[in-house]
Amino acid sequence: MRTSRGSLTFPYGKADPVPGLQDPVADVYVDAELAMQGFTYLLASGAEGSVLGDQVLEYNQDPAYLRDMLLYRLTLEAQRQLSRTRLSKREIIRRLGTSPAQFYRLIDQTNYTKSIDKVLTLLAVLGCDVDLQVRPCSGSREADGPVPAERR
């Protein structure tokens, strides 16, 4: 798939249905029904599958996509904590040192222009500790441990 930042790959083995030697891909097209944000492929058997651009970005571990997904998850958690807090929105806004308009942009999960720092600050105001956990991806070559120096 070609993007503004270059070409990205996506193996058909990760798609559904999976093409094979007996049922190869017969046609591929950018799909208007997917808002031009993915492609649909047709197998020789007539089976059809679609791949969204987000699936390709996730497969390729695109840094901007991963940042947006982290921001999305943190914002949803901030919304959950906001619904549980006894603090008024006015008090939260005061503690954040921001405006009401900025506060509402901060808790909007579809706003990707905000910083992760501000969402972490909001979570702290709401009385939350945020721990970052780094672990190997399942199925990753790196999951097997560090590469010996002679193989680097």
Give an account of the 3D structure:
With 152 residues, this protein is of the alpha+beta class. The chain has two domains: 2-59, no CATH class; 63-125. 36% of the residues lie in helices and 14% in strands. It is built from five helices and five strands. Strands 3-4-5 form a three-stranded antiparallel sheet. Strand 4 and strand 5 form a beta hairpin. Helix 2 (63-84) packs parallel to helix 5 (116-125). The longest helix has 22 residues, at 63-84. The protein starts with a strand and ends in a 27-residue tail after the last helix. Mean pLDDT is 89; it is low at 141-145.
Question: How would you summarize this macromolecular structure in one to three sentences?
Answer:
The chain is of the alpha+beta class and 152 residues long. The protein has helices spanning 53-59, 63-84, 89-96, 100-106, 116-125, and strands at 2-3, 6-7, 25-30, 38-43, 48-52. It has 2 domains: 2-59, no CATH class; 63-125.
Task: Tell me the layout of helices and strands.
Blueprint: E1 2-3, E2 6-7, E3 25-30, E4 38-43, E5 48-52, H1 53-59, H2 63-84, H3 89-96, H4 100-106, H5 116-125
Antiparallel strand pairs: 1-2, 3-4, 4-5
Helix pairs in contact: 2-5
Overall pLDDT confidence: 89
Radius of gyration: 21 Å
Shape, per Cα inertia axes = elongated
The tally of domains stands at 2
Core attributes:
152 residues; alpha+beta; 2 domains; three-stranded antiparallel β-sheet; two-stranded antiparallel sheet; 5 strands; 36% helix
